């Protein structure tokens, strides 16, 4: 255990000098995410929510502790073999780090150095356990006494072990703390660049939100989701912290007549738009929490593509897929037609009146209304390549998800909660409904499988945002099941057929069971 701690501490220090994402726990965790089947990923999101990454990291640390103890037992009997086993684990970490989509040869260093330190400490500590010569037979003992007669015994050099362990632990703790400090120092520049970024006044501001968009019902999600409450689903175990001054975005590929490379200040000199847009994750189960509404500030992505000479397929362009790449290696494939069909697809740099939070893509991310995030909402974006769906499968498509994923018409009951116990009488049943880029035209609620009742809709902001609704239920005593369904702006009503999230989003009606008493 001590040797394992020393190994991780040394790796922490080296990863601060290379990059935080190269640390062995992060690298192995990322490799696990990359290789996990869709069903396992869904299990993690369903049971751990936005804490799925913490659960993964804790699981890795627990397994490392178990392995450390097993290797320690091995080293007691086979000293060199035990130390060699530590080097083997280091090799696993190195391969995982280099094999990441954004990995490079230097990323192997933290695991290699950490393993070397761990092996050396283990070798030194087990050296304090020595095998002494056989004990002479005890005086007067009979042949059957068997009290270790003539057998080797193991002596424990307590003083040497304590000194070696104490020195190794102290030095490693110092190395780990120094690594944390170095990482914090590097990240301080990114934090300062975000603090210093002054968002411009939009050239095309969002229309004023109509009165009555928020129903102000207790238990109902607010119309705008605060940044701190906005859902986060991604594969980054370590949130990238980029310095805005050094950020660059490259646009290139098939059908790009004039490749572009732009920085943040280049974007700030262009026309800035402000729009209210609801984002949803394809992992959101029926009635789930992975959806949020925000006011975004940014630059129209279509304008940049046209400047680069890109034409959509409907205008004869050769590329039908835009592949956005993140600094953490994530790839997101978006239909070029959707980006250039007139909707407010943007490179966003502001969220709810402030620069993007680091966890949501600072300094720049993609936002495309009407598409699930895994095919549209690339965070920490650094590269856009124009290609075709036939030529390239993005990250999640290679893991059994659909290439095309428009947001489905969905609705959710926010209050009363499942298993709530309201009193008989008028009970407000309220929630949100969404069908981004189509809008919501009607919401209906039913009780115990009976007739559908039309809910009162809150005022609509625009067709790219969710819409609140409420129905006054004359509740009677007993246990009841409430269900909701929505109809979008095209007249299509939400399906009641239950389907899981894979490959292109869940379907079915959200329901809650309440006990009126």
What is the structure about, briefly put?
Helix content is 31%, strand content 23%. It has helices at 2-18, 24-35, 38-48, 52-77, 79-99, 109-126, 158-196, 264-268, 301-307, 336-339, and strands at residues 129-131, 154-156, 248-253, 260-263, 273-280, 291-300, 321-326, 331-335, 346-351, 354-355, 365-367, 381-387, 410-415, 425-434, 440-447, 453-454, 456-457, 467-475, 478-488, 511-516.
Instruction: Classify the secondary structure makeup into a structural class.
Output: alpha+beta
Low-confidence stretches: 141-153
- How do the helices and strands follow one another from N- to C-terminus? HHHHHHEEHEEHEEHEEHEEEEEEEEEEEE
Q: Please, how many helices?
A: 10
What gyration radius follows from the Cα positions, in whole Å?
29 Å
Spatial order of strands in the largest sheet: 4-3-12-7-8
Total number of beta strands: 20
Major sheet summary line: 5 strands, mixed
Mean pLDDT: 91
User: Per the principal axes of the C-alpha atoms, what is the gross shape?
Assistant: globular
- Helical content stands at 25-40%
How far is it from the N-terminal to the C-terminal residue, by CA? 56 Å
Strand content: 15-25%
